[in-house]
Amino acid sequence: MASPVMRSFDRILRAIAEKEVTVTFVGESGAGKEVMARRLHDLSARRGGPFVPINCAAIPDALFESELFGHERGAFTGAAERGPGKIEAATGGTLLLDEVAEMPLALQPKLLRFLESHRFMRVGGTRKLEVDARVVLATLRPLEEEVRTGRFRADLYYRIQGIVLTVPPLRDRRRDIPVLIDGFLTQLSAIHDCERPRLTRSARAALLAYDWPGNVRELRNLIELVTILRSGKAVRLQDLPPALHRAAALREPAEGLAIDPELPLAEIVDRVVKHVISEERGNLSRAARRLGVSIRTLQRRRRA
Amino acid sequence: MTARPRLALVSSDLETRRRLAEYLTGAGFAVHECDELSIPSSFASLVLVSGRAADADALRARVRSWLKLASSPRVVVVTAKPSALKDLAAIHGARLFVLAAPAFGWDVVDALRENPIEGPRGA
Fold first, then answer.
1. Does the ipTM exceed 0.90?
2. Cβ separation A42–B105 shorter than 8 A
3. Residue A255 confidence (pLDDT)
4. Among A180, A253, A262, B99, whose Cα sits 20 to 30 Å from the Cα of B114?
5. What is the pLDDT of residues A77-135, one digit of tens each?
6. What pLDDT does residue B1 have?
7. Would you kindly state where each structural domain of chain A is located, as residue ranges?
8. Domain containing B72 — which CATH number?
9. Contacts of A50 in chain B (CB under 8 A)
10. What is the fold of A172-251?
11. Is A186's CB within 8 Å of B101's CB?
12. Within a domain: residue B87?
């Protein structure tokens, strides 16, 4: 990554990866928490083992225990075969519990017991199994808030607290945007079998100015859209969603003249002339002097 | 101790090959680097990183020959022209994994680990 903030983030990951400490990534949706967790895994001594992500918000409460801890045959209707859970799948590697704050309250003591002993029982099982897996967590909001509101158990929170790393949102690391844009354009053109589109300067400026509340995921989705719609063509400012036009306009200086280089030359000249005349409060001779043309030329341009 | 799964990493771009080989070695694979591969069947997996300028027909022919010659190896291809391999992927879905370039090293690792890799036949 090009931004100093992410380079420094990577230095921290390198420093802690080899240590068997619990790490919690906090960050907005789409900021790259899972990518950072994967990077942590790859930098650790467990990189030869599996990396198993599980999104706690995407699993219905009733299935959560079986999904995480696995089940024995006949443990419930439909459990025709023994099924290992994600914890077992992560043996020798890293288990990422994404959106951990969404984990059902009733299951949190079982996770706590596993974290303390590395032992657990499958649903319907009678035998304790031992698994060596590093557990890494990710959450949208700091877990303290969830503890305060009673949605997350305090004892589990204190057990997993470990090192908390905040993944910076994309708007705080704008220097990464051009790198991400180019990577996505190349990859998505390949995926959709399109000719790579070309971003005009005004479109690129708007992409850099926008705040990206949906972060990298939102950027990728937008690049996917323009890759498909503008295959092999130029992507102009008007091809981008209105929110990006507004961002581009807001970044322009409050006073002064905004020139869109995509406009025809005659239109640009016209705008410059009008702007200078307006600044000179309609005094054509002063405006002409400033523009380095005669009053007659200026009058001609106004009539054109 | 379990033997490291052997894989051949094929790419004509030396820098790409070196970096990916380093990553895959770290992830637990025994990597053989080359820019051409004559005996694909001696490896559990084959990874091909195809350059942007690679001809789609040549790429398809190469991958097809690997799939034909070697019955057990898994083939992972990173390419700027994934559509060129759509037909082959439909036929050999369990063995052929096509990733659009640029791909993360871990995308390659995930494709290699999707299911347990069988040992090469006759190796």
1. no
2. yes
3. 52
4. A180
5. 777 777 889 999 999 999 999 999 999 999 999 999 998 899 998 988 888 999 999 99
6. 53
7. 4-168, 172-251, 265-303
8. 3.40.50.2300
9. 113
10. Helicase, Ruva Protein; domain 3 (1.10.8)
11. yes
12. yes
